[in-house]
Write a structure and sequence with these properties.
Largest sheet of chain A: 7 strands, mixed
Oligomer: heterodimer
Number of helices of chain A: 0
Strand content of chain B: over 45%
Order of helices and strands of chain A: EEEEEEEEEEE
Radius of gyration of chain B: 13 Å
Helix content of chain A: under 10%
Structural class of chain B: mainly beta
Largest interface: A-B, 22 and 23 residues
Largest sheet of chain B: 6 strands, mixed
Shape of chain A: globular
Number of strands of chain B: 12
Number of strands of chain A: 11
Distance between the termini of chain B: 41 Å
Chain lengths: ~120, ~110
């Protein structure tokens, strides 16, 4: 176990549903990330929260909406998804330096949520 | 653009032998981190080894070592005395102040 948990582990949803993915880290880290892992493609960084502030949104469609209420929790709200959004969604956390500049040091990953959009 | 390339989609090695996984990257930055992550089947991705670009000495962690060639922008992973538990996807990754990039991965099969 890496100290990062994700729920649910598996999710099947229709294109009109609204669901949320949850991530929690027990490591005292101050930065959290959402990644999309599709078959035979590199991991795609979706969102970054540093000190609870969103610092990156890598051109992710608005049907994905992140929320970071505190430095230990991260959510990914999903609505009107498409079948091509089916993938493994990974959450990660890291400890960034207090200067506010992300060092992009070691990340600790959760087990992921396997999402299937019908 | 900063990209990470792993040119070996899949590799096999006999148990107890040595295998080297290749990784190249492209960046104009001078300060950054490089990582190898391991993702076993249906299990969490975990860090294998980490290298700071400003350190010339190659990082080692038990049976895992890297060959970091900064000028060539190469960062290969050597696994010595391969074990069945080393079977996994291995991802090379690049991180610096602005970005974090992963390669497409190398699937390593360790055969008994």
């Amino acid at each position: 176990e890496t100290g990062v948990t994700q729920t649910p582990r598996h999710l099947v949803m229709g294109m009109t549903n609204k669901k949320s993915l949850k991530c929690e880290q027990h490591l005292g880290h101050n930065a959290m990330y959402w990644y999309k892992q599709s078959a035979k493609k590199p991991l795609e960084l979706m969102f970054v929260y540093n000190f609870k502030e969103q610092t990156e949104n890598n051109s992710v469609p608005s049907r994905f909406s992140p929320e970071c209420p505190n430095s230990s929790h991260l959510f990914l709200h999903l609505h009107t998804l498409q079948p091509e959004d089916s993938a493994l969604y990974l959450c990660a956390s890291s400890q960034e330096e207090g200067s506010g500049l992300p060092t992009r040091d070691t990340q600790y990953f959760g087990p992921g949520t396997r999402l299937t959009v019908l | 653009a900063q990209t990470v390339t792993q040119s070996q989609p899949e590799m096999s090695v006999q148990e107890a032998e040595t295998v080297t996984l290749s990784c190249t990257y492209d960046t104009s930055e001078n300060n950054y981190y490089l990582f190898w992550y391991k993702q076993p089947p249906s299990r969490q991705m975990i860090l294998v080894i980490r290298q700071e670009a400003y350190k010339q000495q190659n990082a080692t962690e038990n049976r895992f070592s890297v060959n970091f060639q900064k000028a060539a922008k190469s960062f290969s992973l050597k696994i010595s005395d391969s074990q069945l538990g080393d079977t996994a996807m291995y991802f090379c990754a690049f991180g610096n102040f602005n970005k974090f990039y992963f390669g497409s991965g190398t699937k390593l099969n360790v055969k008994p």
